Amino acid sequence: MKKKFIVVGGGAAGFFAAINAAELHPELEVIILEGSNNVLQKVKVSGGGRCNVTHACFMPKELTEFYPRGKKELLGPFHQFMTGDTMEWFENRGVSLKIEDDNRVFPESNSSQTIINCFLESAKNAGVKVLTSTRVNSIERHQEKFMLQTAEQSFEADYLLIATGSNAKVWSMIEALGHSVVSPVPSLFTFNILDERIKDIPGISVPLATVKVIGSKLEEQGPLLITHWGMSGPGILKLSAWGALELYQKDYKFEIEVNWLSKKFDTVLNKLKSVKKEQPKKQVVLRAVFEEIPKRLWEKFVVTAQISVTTQWAQLSNKQLENLASQLTKSIFKVEGKSTFKDEFVTAGGVDLKEIDFKRFESKLHKNLFFAGEVLNVDAITGGFNFQNAWTGSWIVVNSII
User: Fold this and answer.
1) Degrees to nearest 5, angle at CA 175 with 172 and 181
2) Which fold has domain 3-186+344-398?
3) How far from chain centre, in Å, is Cα 55?
4) Which of the chain's termini has less CB crowding within 10 Å, N or C?
5) Residue-averaged pLDDT of the chain
6) What pTM was computed for the model?
């Protein structure tokens, strides 16, 4: 009778592990148990439906810098399976990838369905059994094996990989096996802000803003997007990842300072003064001096700086110029909460990393019990890094099971 390698969780990490296990170890029976009706749902919505597969950073030490939690633990694993290995894996299965200007990696099709189809076809060809609507209710260790109970039947596993992502019920089962779980808090989220300066202009963005949490060391740069509920974009999401625990403790009520240009106040003020000299008779509101600032946002800043819409540059006082420079480089906004997207966003928290052997992604408490992906207390900023953690962990598990 074949030994069984069972994967709990039909997501990215689970499929990647199952496919590789079946291909590398044909002597195993490989089974995926997924509680919902559908598999790979997080893959489907990731990257705005395009699936940000990984990131074009090819140095392990450099790559670890994108992980607020797991940085130290992932250095060794990244030397075993890296971003380039991920890209090769998909390309060998007929998925053409592209590197975008910000180094994010996507399928050339711009569709996450391409990645899903690759997984489903590879799993079928490798003989992986995929059982949906099969929710695991309990996990117990019986001598050398693991017993998994669902509503309909029980399963016996010689090797067990838990790759369920953020799942409170599964974490409870893991705790029942003796592991510690760090309480989860949101790691990637947007900021809820009610402010006249960004009201009624959703969809407006700037390419490089600097955002600081006032009274904190938290500061990040990146594109910033104005939304119906406040602010989002990579700059905000990076800040939320690094500040996940601190912002949770603040109950998501704090103030931020936004430098919309990522330029010094004096530099911006001098530019405004030169425009005043060069275009004295033009109305201030009609043209944004900086091309990075969309016209509708510029209009908001002009009004906030107490400049009339009919005012010409020559009529501006030094105080008004300073007010406008301040709006552009140190706007203060009050954050009154967060917004997360359940299907796509990640959490900080999970199985305590001290209890994991990262040479194998194996439990230090139970031989042949493995973890990969977000079920661990590992998370990254946005940009393909969370998927890379999943691919690396799953690959190392598969190469450790026999």
Assistant:
1) 90
2) FAD/NAD(P)-binding domain (3.50.50)
3) 12
4) N
5) 96
6) 0.90
